UniProtKB/TrEMBL annotation:
Binds 1 zinc ion per subunit. GO terms for cellular component: cytoplasm; extracellular space; plasma membrane; side of membrane. It is an enzyme of class 3 (hydrolase). Its EC number is 3.4.11.-. This is Aminopeptidase. Its main location: membrane. It comes from Drosophila persimilis.
Length: 927
C-alpha cells in the first residue's frame, strides 16, 4: 500500500458499567485469547444520500490461551448495542453458560474490553457475537463512501469501499486489529439488488433479504487465514473486464461503467505479472480469484487487500489518448507492487508494524523486477533503482530520518512509517543484497522464507536466517559472514555512509574510511558515527568492467560496532581513474581525492565517456553535487564535471543532474545571481534540446522508450529557462487546441508534452487560457489527464488567480476531490509567485487544513515539502519554527514531517551562507 494515519475513539453504549476507562493501557492487545475465525455479516444502505450507513454482526470464534476474565479487542467510532452481545462456550470439557457482565473502553488505544460472567478457561473455544452500526464515513478510511457522476443521467452514484491498513478495520467491525492475529473470514454482504457486492473471496450463495424488499444477502467463500487489515468489501454498480490466463485464477478489473474502456491495459498487465510472481516465488497464487478495482475517492495510491486490490483511479486506469508514457509506467509499477504483496505481506505478514518494510520494501523491489520482465524495452529497472536511490540519498541524509525497521509504540506512529524509508530505502537495500548474493542464492533464500512462513507472521531475523543458509549453500558469502550482521547495519541504524577514497598512486593502493553522510553541516564529525557493512565493487579505467557488481572486498565493522578502515591493493597508477560502487549497487556516496576526480572529469568531458556505465555517470553527478552542497568538495569540481552533459544523450545522468539543479534553482531564483544560473542552464540544455528536435512531435519515431522520458524532461526545463523556440512552440500548440471545435475530443498537443505545454501556456497566458484549462479539467473523464491539468493550473503568475485557485482546492463545492487538493496546493507553492501565497495560506489556515485532512494527516504533511525546498534565510526559518511551536495542536501526527521540514530549511540556510558566492563564481567562469 502507499501511505496513512489515524487515532480516535471507541464507542460503547448499553450496560451500566460501559464506557468506564480501562485499566489496561499497554499499546498492544493482551495475549490471553486469539481469534480462530470471523463470521462477518454487514447490511449496507446506499439508497438515501442523506443517510449512507451500515449495520452488522460479527461472530468471532476465540480460543482462550490462558485463563482470563475478559476479552479485549478493538473498536472505533462504532455504535454497539450491548444488550445484544452474546458469549457462549462451544468446545471444552463442560460447557458452561457465559455472558458479558460489563464493558470498558480505552480511548487511547481503541480497546473495547468485555468483562465476562465466568472465567474463560485455557484450551476452550468461545463464540462472541457483537452487533455494530455506523455511518459510511467521508474520511477515506475504515468502511467509507465514494461517488461518481453518471454522465448519462447527470446523477451522483454512490458506492461503499473499505480501507483498513494500518489500523482501521476496527472502524468497520469489532476485531483483533493487529497483523499478528490471522484468522479465516466468512463475509456476508447485504445490499439492494441493483448493486454488486465484492469481497476477498468469490461469492458462494445469494438469497433474498428476510424483510427488506429488493435487498439480497451474498455470502462469500471462507478465506485463507489473514490479518484484519487485508479484509476488503465493496458494494457498487461497477462494470468489469475479465482477463483470466489459462490455468490461472479468475482475474477481473473493475471501474465505474463510464471508465471501463480505460481498464484494458491494467487487465492485460495484471495477470502477466501475477504469473511471473508464481514462477519467481515458486508458489501458486493461493486464492481462486483476484479482482482489482478503481475507486473515485481513495487516499492511498493502492491497497493490496487479498483477492480484492483497491486503487486510486490514476493508478489503474489508462487511456491511450490521454495517458503519457511516464504515467503508464507508474501504473504498471503500482499494479506490480500490489500484486507482489499477495506473497510479501499477505501470505507472509510482518509480526508487528516495526517490520512494515518487509511488506513495502519487498513489494517495491520485486515490482521493479516484474515490470522489467514484462516490459524490458522500458529499461525501467535501472530507472526505478536510480530514482529510489536519489530519493533516499536526500531523505536519509537528514538527522531526523529513521531506521528502515523502526519501533512502533502507538497506532498514530504506524502511519508515519508508510514513507520513503520503508518503500524506497527498503527496496534499495534489497537490491544491494540481490546484487551481492547473486540470483541463485537470493531466490532460493526468498523461496524458503515464503514456504516456511506461509499463512503465518515473520520478522526480519527470520528472513536473514533463510538468506544466510542459501548464501552459504551457494557460496555467495564466506562462512564467517552472516546476513544478519551485514543487513542489521542497514536496517537498524539511520542513514548511510560516505566512503572517502584516498589513493596512494605510488603504492598503487587506496585507503577507504566511512562515516555517516549528513546534510546538516553543523553536526560535528564525532557525532557522525555508525558503521555499515559495505560490499565494495569497483573498476578501473583500464578494466572498465561495470557488469560485475559482486563485491571484490568488504568494509567491515568491529565487534563493538566501530568502523574499520580498509586498504585496497593492486590499483593502477596516476594515469588511471578508479570508480567504486559499480552500477550504484549499494547505498553510499563516494568522495575521491582531487586527482581521481580530475581523471574522471577528463574522461567525461574529453574522452570516451560512454564506456562508463550510465548509472555510474548518474552517480558521479549526484555524488559531486551533494559533496559540493555540504562543502566536502569544491563547487568548481562539481560544475566542471557536469559540463560534460552537453555531450550526454542518455536519460539517467540528466535525471540525476536535474534533481540536483532543481534544488539549487529554487534558492537561487530568489536572489540577484539567478541571471547567471539561467544563462548556465540554457548553455547546458540547448544541445540536448536541439538533438531531440525540441518541442516537435517526433515521439512516434523514437525507438528507445527512455528517450521519450528524456525528451519530456528536457522540454520541461527548456521552456522554464526559455531555451531556443520552446516557449513560442508551446504557446502555439495551446492556441491550436483552443481553436478546436471540440477540444475535449480532439487535442493536438503531443501526449508526452502536455505537462510542459499546459504549464507554459498558463504561465505566459491570459485569464481566458486559465478558464479554458479549468473547463477541460471539469469535463475530463481520465484521472491522469486531470492530475496533469491540476498541476498546470498552478503555473499562473497572477497573484489573484493563484489565490482563488488555493481557495478552490479546499472548497467542497468545487470540482477538486479531497484526495487531489494536495496536488493543486503543491503546484501553487512550488511556483515562485505562488510560494509566499501558499505559505501564508497554510499558516493562516492551519487549523482548517488540519480538520480538512483529519484523520489522514499524512496528506497535510505533504503540503510542507515546497516550504522546505524554498526557505533559505535565517529570518524565514525562525518565523516558520515559531509558527510550528504556536500551532502544535493543529500539527498533531505530523511530528516527523515537521522535523524533516525544519531540518531541510536549516540545511538551505547553511548552503546559502557557505556556497552561494562560491557557486556563482564557478558558474560565471563556465559561461
Amino acid at each position: 500500500m502507499k501511505w496513512i494515519l489515524l487515532f480516535m475513539v471507541a464507542l460503547g453504549l448499553g450496560l451500566a458499567a460501559a464506557s468506564t476507562s480501562s485499566s489496561y493501557s499497554f499499546y498492544r492487545l493482551p495475549t490471553a485469547v486469539r481469534p480462530q475465525k470471523y463470521h462477518l455479516k454487514i447490511l449496507t444502505h446506499l439508497d438515501n444520500p442523506e443517510e449512507l450507513r451500515f449495520a452488522g454482526t460479527v461472530r468471532i470464534l476465540v480460543e482462550a490461551l490462558q485463563n482470563t476474565k475478559n476479552i479485549t479487542l478493538h473498536s472505533k467510532n462504532l455504535t454497539i448495542d450491548e444488550s445484544q452481545i452474546t458469549l457462549r462456550q462451544i468446545s471444552g470439557e463442560e460447557k458452561k453458560d457465559n455472558c458479558v457482565s460489563s464493558t470498558e473502553v480505552n480511548q487511547d488505544h481503541d480497546f473495547y474490553v468485555l468483562n465476562t460472567c465466568q472465567e474463560l478457561l485455557a484450551g476452550n473455544v468461545y463464540e462472541l457475537s457483537l452487533p455494530f452500526a455506523a455511518e459510511l464515513n467521508k474520511q477515506l478510511e475504515g468502511y467509507y463512501r465514494s461517488s461518481y457522476k453518471d454522465t448519462d443521467t447527470n446523477k451522483t452514484r454512490w458506492l461503499s469501499i473499505t480501507q483498513f491498513e494500518p489500523a482501521s478495520a476496527r472502524a468497520a467491525f469489532p476485531c483483533f486489529d493487529e497483523p499478528g492475529y490471522k484468522a479465516p473470514f466468512v463475509v456476508t454482504l447485504g445490499f439492494h439488488k441493483q448493486y454488486t457486492g465484492l469481497s476477498n473471496m468469490p461469492a458462494k450463495e445469494t438469497k433474498p433479504h428476510e424483510s427488506l424488499a429488493d435487498y439480497i444477502w451474498v455470502e462469500f467463500d471462507e478465506s485463507v487465514p489473514m490479518s484484519t487489515y487485508l479484509v476488503a468489501y465493496s458494494v457498487n454498480d461497477f462494470a468489469n473486464k475479465p482477463s483470466t490466463l489459462p490455468n490461472s485464477p479468475l482475474f477481473r478489473t473493475w471501474a465505474r461503467p463510464n471508465a471501463i474502456d480505460q481498464c484494458n491495459y491494467a487487465a492485460e498487465f495484471g495477470p502477466k505479472v501475477l504469473q511471473y510472481y508464481e514462477q519467481f516465488f515458486g508458489i501458486k497464487f493461493p486464492l481462486p480469484k483476484i479482482d482489482q478495482i478503481a475507486i473515485p475517492d481513495f487516499n492511498a495510491g493502492a491497497m493490496e487487500n487479498w483477492g480484492l486490490v483497491t486503487y486510486r483511479e490514476i493508478a489503474l486506469l489508462f487511456s491511450p489518448e490521454h495517458t503519457s508514457l511516464a504515467d503508464k509506467q507508474r501504473l504498471a509499477n503500482v499494479v506490480a507492487h500490489e500484486l507482489a504483496h499477495q506473497w510479501f505481506g499477505n501470505l507472509v505478514t510482518m509480526k508487528w508494524w516495526t517490520d512494515l518494510w518487509l511488506n513495502e520494501g519487498f513489494a517495491t523491489y520485486i515490482a521493479s523486477l516484474g515490470v522489467e520482465n514484462i516490459n524490458p524495452e522500458w529499461r525501467s529497472l535501472e530507472q526505478d533503482s536510480l530514482s529510489n536511490l536519489l530519493t533516499i540519498f536526500r531523505k536519509d541524509a537528514l538527522e531526523s530520518s529513521h531506521p528502515i525497521s523502526r519501533p512502533i509504540e502507538v497506532v498514530s506512529d504506524i502511519a508515519e512509517s508508510f514513507d520513503q524509508i520503508s518503500y524506497q530505502n527498503g527496496s534499495s537495500v534489497l537490491r544491494m543484497m540481490h546484487m551481492f548474493l547473486g540470483e541463485e542464492s537470493f531466490r532460493a533464500g526468498l523461496q524458503s522464507y515464503l514456504q516456511m512462513y506461509s499463512y503465518k507472521n515473520a520478522e526480519q531475523d527470520n528472513l536473514w536466517e533463510s538468506l544466510t543458509q542459501a548464501a552459504h549453500k551457494f557460496r555467495a558469502l564466506p562462512k564467517s559472514y552472516d546476513i544478519k550482521s551485514i543487513m542489521d547495519s542497514w536496517t537498524l541504524q539511520t542513514g548511510y555512509p560516505v566512503i572517502n577514497v584516498t589513493r596512494d598512486y605510488g603504492g598503487k593502493s587506496a585507503k577507504l574510511s566511512q562515516e555517516r553522510y549528513l546534510l546538516n553541516t553543523q553536526i560535528s564529525r564525532e557525532h557522525r558515527g555508525g558503521c555499515w557493512w559495505v560490499p565494495l565493487s569497483y573498476t578501473t579505467q583500464g578494466e572498465q568492467d561495470f557488469n560485475n557488481t559482486a563485491p571484490k572486498a568488504w568494509m567491515e565493522c568491529g565487534k563493538t560496532g566501530e568502523s574499520l578502515s580498509k586498504t585496497i591493493q593492486d590499483l593502477p597508477g596516476a594515469d588511471q581513474w578508479v570508480i567504486f560502487n559499480t552500477q550504484l549497487s549499494t547505498l553510499y556516496k563516494v568522495n575521491y581525492d582531487s586527482h581521481n576526480w580530475k581523471l574522471l572529469i577528463e574522461t567525461l568531458t574529453e574522452g570516451d565517456f560512454e564506456r562508463i556505465h550510465v548509472i555510474n555517470r548518474a552517480q558521479l553527478i549526484d555524488d559531486a553535487l551533494y559533496l559540493a552542497w555540504t562543502g566536502e568538495q569544491d563547487y568548481e569540481i562539481a560544475m566542471r564535471l557536469i559540463e560534460y552533459l552537453q555531450r550526454e544523450r542518455e536519460y539517467l545522468p540528466w535525471k540525476s543532474a536535474f534533481e540536483n539543479l532543481k534544488r539549487v534553482s529554487r534558492i537561487l531564483r530568489q536572489t540577484p545571481e539567478f541571471e547567471f544560473f539561467k544563462r548556465y542552464i540554457k548553455k547546458l540544455v540547448t544541445p540536448i534540446y536541439l538533438h531531440l528536435n525540441g518541442l516537435n512531435d517526433t515521439f512516434s519515431g523514437i525507438q528507445q522508450q527512455d528517450q521519450i522520458l528524456l525528451k519530456t524532461m528536457v522540454a520541461n526545463w527548456a521552456c522554464q529557462y526559455q531555451v531556443a523556440d520552446c516557449v513560442p512552440l508551446a504557446l502555439q500548440y495551446y492556441r491550436n487546441w483552443r481553436s478546436e471545435a471540440d477540444p475535449d475530443e480532439k487535442n493536438p498537443v503531443p501526449l508526452n508534452l502536455r505537462n510542459t505545454v499546459y504549464c507554459t501556456s498558463i504561465k505566459y497566458g491570459t485569464d481566458a487560457d486559465w478558464e479554458f484549462l479549468w473547463t477541460r479539467y471539469k469535463k475530463s473523464n481520465v484521472a491522469a489527464e486531470k492530475r496533469t491539468i491540476l498541476t498546470s493550473l498552478g503555473c499562473s503568475r497572477e497573484v489573484w488567480v493563484l489565490q482563488r485557485y488555493l481557495e478552490m482546492a479546499y472548497d467542497p463545492n468545487q470540482a477538486i476531490r479531497k484526495q487531489d487538493s494536495m496536488w493543486a496546493f503543491q503546484a501553487i507553492a512550488f511556483n515562485e509567485v505562488g510560494f509566499l501565497l501558499a505559505k501564508k495560506y497554510f499558516m493562516d489556515n492551519v487549523n482548517f487544513l488540519y480538520k480538512f485532512y483529519y484523520p489522514i494527516t499524512k496528506d497535510m504533511g505533504r503540503l510542507l515539502t515546497p516550504f522546505s525546498e524554498q526557505v533559505f534565510t535565517q529570518s524565514d526559518f525562525n518565523e516558520f519554527r515559531n509558527f510550528v511551536l504556536l500551532s502544535r495542536d493543529s500539527l498533531k501526527g505530523l511530528e516527523q514531517a515537521i522535523q524533516q521540514t525544519l531540518e531541510t530549511m536549516l540545511t538551505n540556510v547553511q548552503w546559502k551562507e557557505r556556497n552561494y558566492h562560491q557557486m556563482s563564481r564557478s558558474i560565471q567562469k563556465l559561461l
